[in-house]
Write a structure and sequence with these properties.
The complex is a heterodimer of chains A (739) and B (222). Chain A has 27 helices and 28 strands. In chain A, strands 8-10-7-11-9-12-13 form a seven-stranded mixed β-sheet. In chain A, 35% of the residues lie in helices and 23% in strands. In chain A, strand 14 and strand 15 form a beta hairpin. The relative contact order of chain A is 0.13. Helices cover 23% and strands 27% of the residues of chain B. Chain B is built from five helices and eleven strands; from the N terminus they run βαββαβαββββαβββα. Chain B has helices spanning 14-24, 67-77, 87-94, 151-159, 210-221, and strands spanning 2-7, 28-33, 44-47, 81-85, 101-103, 111-119, 135-142, 146-148, 163-168, 179-183, 189-192. In chain B, the strands form two sheets. Chain B has a nine-stranded mixed β-sheet, sandwiched between helices. A two-stranded antiparallel sheet of chain B has the order 5-8. In chain B, strand 1, helix 1 and strand 2 (28-33) form a beta-alpha-beta unit. The chains are: A alpha+beta (739), B alpha/beta (222).
């Protein structure tokens, strides 16, 4: 787009602005925008950048609490973990680009989220991710899975940030729209936190990192539309990542921050130079004047339009104290990075961009931010909601089904099998902090120089969210917290990635609204505020939207790193105790889906009082050193959970004998997914103590069996060799990965 | 003992190695910046893992050209102790300080997991605290760990006891003769794909890697 391109109604339409929005823009501006200004607004007011459809609902989420240092609105959220240290963290989606180009789409998603964390002054210590693909037998699934995993590995491994956990899910609802949600956590001293403020009139605006190219122009706009035909043509809107440059950027930024000359800093993510400069000036209530002739460019002849909208990766914008520019520039030169003073902070509240001496952009920041559209879109409960929630499924009887075969089928299914093929491609040990490796409930990392650790978990049962978005989303929060508690961590705060379909459809908006309300209730009740996150709408192709998928990532603190737990059974003779109760609930279970082809019923009941008591019990017991293993019971029910406790990737497997006395139908007892349950083991001499601890928190608890042998036995229903089960479980992805 | 940890652009196990030497083993550690040829009077140089220069061109090929490597080469030629871990091993083969090359893993995927290693030679400066034939556990994490050399070189490596570590119970990357680590003929330069610095604390699952450092300190005390 040349600077003199005339802004016609056709061009406005191409930029995805509605007539109403364009009218708004003209009114706030008091004139017609030029082409570059129009481009800027098309991205600033895109769904991806403006949250125009989600804002009214996001406002209902709890965002404050005693440990919150930084809530939403910055590059990442921050919580205080004591000892003067904080954890900065955020999760973000890269769904649309990853579907078009899985390797680079996923890689740059990981790159972007790490920048969000180190721009706050934090050194990233761990990556997690939540990735969802279409059905296992969908022709594109193997290609997308391999590309996404290799892309995540490529970027994280090179950066030297361990990828320590996450979730991998296959379901036909993602056939046309995969989900790639990337999470990063970093550690920062409380007094070393940086924020994205363009403060101090006369201070210099410094561009840092890769040169600007023509890649990724309108990536944010693409992420704000549904997929139709011809998506492959949008490949040029996917950015290409260079993790090597980002590694230099990480080290250089952390070193430059130590000079004390940096006033504010922000990464250039979606909408690149445009959003970073606007957001920094807007937060500080200042203006910025930039000279396009100073921007390091990859190729000649780039127009202001292209420079302002490029989403070239590995770039940052910093505001540096006037007169101290050289202190910062010398650090960047040491790391062989491009860095230029490209502008200055002004007091007139205007974004002014010049090229060859001529003003090409002149936009008053506050009026335009104020004029940004906010929609309260209509929401309507889908007509089919009652129908899917109804479940009428007669018990086949104790003897008829072969429970062994069902268990084998479940543990070898792609959603429940070992994800070793995935996580061995990720360097999950670099940094020498990973105490609990991938494959257990939550990842646990120690913090060098302290006794502490952090526990990190990512979770969402999207099928439950489809059946009931309110309770499904509440469950996602509860399960994350439970995973953290079962690892020995105290849950502190949440970041989310809300993946939904087209918000212009009332049914989708209803799902979104319900999910926000459910999350809100769970977060308030469990005391885990939401400090950062992201919304990804338009995850639909044709008329098919994905399941509503509010992916949740939670951060917890482990007070004494020596007192943590893994899910794996340890020694012969250890006592198995069930905390919580088995109930007769089968709705939305993996068993119904996989064995009976039903996606029906209401998700299990979520009783917050019981949930809190359960988590207090397990945390207290781990803290007192009486727990040898702890595992949350979730997908696949208690039978699968106990099987998972018996098996360890590449490690020693051990059997167990379990006796359940519940008077409920066999399939619900074995495979029902009732919430609020954790299987723990302890040395026989500690069993009484453990039960007493549970009693003190009014948590139902009972001995259900013993660890040992080479078989997994559950009542007279399950009798299977652990070696056989291990073989099935560890090879569950083989077929898919061989394609 | 004073250890120097080389920092190339893209090194990412430099901080791990520093911590290993300094906090875990209680020795002195200093960083050696790639643009600065000064070795700061160190007794042993560690070239850490990572993606030096983004692994562009060929793993280790650009690192070999950096000012620090001239000093490292001179130090090694005078008998100074040098250990290259993972990417450091690749750098040392590119620099000609160790025989052979490291090719892409035969599975064409990055592999991160703990493997078993057999100690083939415990008479080196780096392995004298292990027993010969002992099987230990260490993590690997690489794309290009498939050791290769010509037949003549392999024969010589075997004859002179230069093969220090081999993979045990399965070959993860296709390395020739299961080679996981080799020393030069003089025995003062070690290259190994596994990461001893990742398995030197009980909290991280074992201490089998610590004896590499203990061996070096033991050797120089004598």
């Amino acid at each position: 787009m040349q600077q003199d391109t005339k802004v016609t109604p056709e061009i406005v339409k191409q930029h995805g602005l509605s007539d109403e929005e364009y009218g708004r823009l003209k009114k706030a501006l008091g004139r017609e925008p030029n082409i570059t200004e129009l481009g800027i607004f098309s991205v600033m007011w895109s769904e991806h950048c403006s949250y125009k459809s989600s804002k009214v609902h996001l406002k209902k989420l709890p965002t404050t609490g005693p440990s919150v240092v930084q809530g939403p609105g910055e590059n990442a959220g921050i919580v205080d973990i004591g000892d003067g240290l904080c954890v900065a963290f955020k999760m973000e989606s890269h769904n649309h680009p990853s579907f078009i180009e899985p390797f680079q789409g996923a890689a740059t998603g990981v790159g972007g989220i790490m920048r969000d964390v180190f721009t706050m002054g934090a050194r990233p210590i761990a990556n997690l991710n939540s990735i969802r693909f279409g059905a296992v037998d969908h022709p594109k699934t193997p290609y997308l899975l391999k590309g996404v995993v290799a892309g995540i590995a490529h970027y994280g491994n090179c950066m030297g940030v361990p990828t320590v956990g996450g979730e991998v899910v296959f379901d036909e609802s993602y056939n046309g729209n995969i989900l790639v949600n990337a999470f990063t956590a970093g550690i920062v001293s409380k007094e070393d936190i940086f924020r994205g403020f363009a403060s101090g009139i006369g201070n210099s605006v410094i561009y840092i990192g890769s040169k600007t190219g023509r890649d990724g122009i309108h990536g944010a706009t693409m992420a704000s539309d549904v997929f139709g035909s011809g998506n492959e043509e949008r490949r040029p809107t996917v950015q290409v990542g260079d993790p090597f440059t980002e590694k230099l950027l990480l080290e250089a930024c952390l070193e430059a921050m130590k000079t004390g000359a940096i006033v504010g800093i922000q990464d250039m993510g979606a909408a690149g130079l445009t959003s970073s400069s606007f957001e920094m000036a807007s937060r500080a209530g200042t203006g910025i004047e930039m000279n396009m002739d100073k921007i390091p460019l990859r190729e000649e002849g780039m127009t202001p339009y292209e420079i302002m909208l490029s989403e070239s990766q590995e770039r940052m914008l910093a505001v540096v104290e006037k007169g101290r520019e050289e202190e910062v520039l010398s650090v960047l030169r040491k790391w062989d990075l491009d860095a230029e003073v490209v502008g200055v902070v002004t007091n007139d509240g205007v974004m002014r961009v010049r090229k060859a001496g001529k003003v090409v952009v002149e936009l008053p920041i506050a009026p335009l931010v104020h004029a940004a559209p906010v929609y309260e879109r209509p929401a309507k409960r889908p007509a089919w909601q009652d129908q899917v929630q109804a479940l009428d499924f007669a018990y086949p009887g104790d003897s008829r089904p072969c429970w062994n075969d069902i268990l084998k089928k479940l543990v070898s299914s792609p959603n429940l099998c070992s994800k070793k093929w995935v996580y061995t491609q990720y360097d999950h040990m670099v940094g020498t902090d990973t105490v609990v490796l991938p494959g257990s409930d939550a990842a646990v990392l120690r913090i060098k120089g302290t006794k502490k650790g952090v526990a990190l978990s990512v979770d969402c049962n999207a099928r439950w969210c489809y059946l009931d978005p309110y309770w499904g989303a509440a469950h996602a929060i509860a399960e994350c917290a439970r995973n953290i508690a079962a690892s020995g961590g105290r849950a502190l705060a949440v970041t989310d990635c809300l993946n939904f379909g087209n918000p212009e459809r009332p049914e989708i908006m209803w799902q979104f609204e319900q999910a926000c309300l459910g999350m809100s209730l769970a977060c308030k009740t469990l005391g885990t505020p939401i400090v950062s996150g992201n919304v990804s709408f338009y995850n639909e192709t044709g008329k098919d939207a994905i399941y509503p998928t509010p992916a949740i990532a939670m951060v917890g603190v482990v007070e004494d790193i020596e007192r943590h737990a893994t899910q794996f059974f340890k020694d012969e003779g250890d006592i198995v105790i069930l905390l919580g109760e088995n109930t007769d609930e089968l709705g939305g279970s993996e068993y119904l889906k996989q064995i009976h082809g039903k996606v029906k019923g209401a998700p299990p009941t979520l009783n917050f009082d019981r949930e809190i008591n359960l988590q207090k019990t397990v945390l207290s017991a781990i803290g007192r050193g009486v727990v040898k293993s702890a595992h949350d019971i979730s997908t696949g029910g208690i039978a699968v959970a106990v099987a998972e406790c018996c098996m360890k990737d590449g490690g020693d497997c051990i059997g167990a004998t379990i006796q359940l006395e519940d008077r409920i139908r066999g399939d619900a007892m074995l495979f029902g997914e009732a919430a609020g349950r954790i299987v723990v083991t302890c040395d026989p001499k500690n069993a009484e103590l453990l039960l007493t601890i549970a009693k003190s928190f009014s948590c139902p608890a009972g001995v259900i069996g013993k660890v040992g042998g080479k078989m997994l036995l559950i009542n007279d229903l399950i009798c299977v060799s652990i070696d056989e089960l291990y073989k099935l479980w560890s090879g569950g992805l083989n077929k898919l990965c061989a394609e | 003992m004073r250890f120097g940890v080389v920092v190339f652009p893209g090194s990412n196990c430099d901080r791990d190695c520093y911590n290993w030497v300094d906090k875990v083993a209680g020795n002195e550690a200093v960083y050696l910046w790639h643009k600065d040829p000064d070795l700061k009077g160190v007794d042993c140089i560690i070239i850490p893992g990572g993606f030096s220069y983004g692994d562009y061109l060929r793993c280790g090929a650009i690192a070999k050209q950096s000012p620090i490597m001239k000093s490292v080469t001179g130090f090694a030629q005078k008998g100074g102790l040098v250990i290259g871990i993972c990417n450091g091993f690749q750098v040392l083969t590119e620099a000609g300080l160790l025989p052979g090359v490291l090719l892409r893993n035969t599975g064409l995927m990055f592999i991160c997991r703990t493997v078993e290693l057999k100690i083939e030679n415990n008479k080196t400066a780096f392995t004298n605290k292990y027993k010969k034939g002992e099987v230990v556990k260490m993590p690997i994490a690489h794309n290009d760990g498939n050791y290769f050399c010509d037949e003549v070189t392999l024969k010589r490596l075997k004859a002179k006891g230069q093969i220090v570590f081999t993979y045990h119970g399965g070959n993860p990357n296709g390395a020739m003769a299961g080679i996981a680590g080799v020393v030069n003929e003089k025995g003062n330069v070690l290259g190994m794909m596994p990461h001893p610095e990742r398995i030197s604390e009980g909290l991280l699952g074992g201490v089998d890697g610590l004896r590499v450092l203990e061996s070096i300190c033991n050797r120089t005390q004598r």
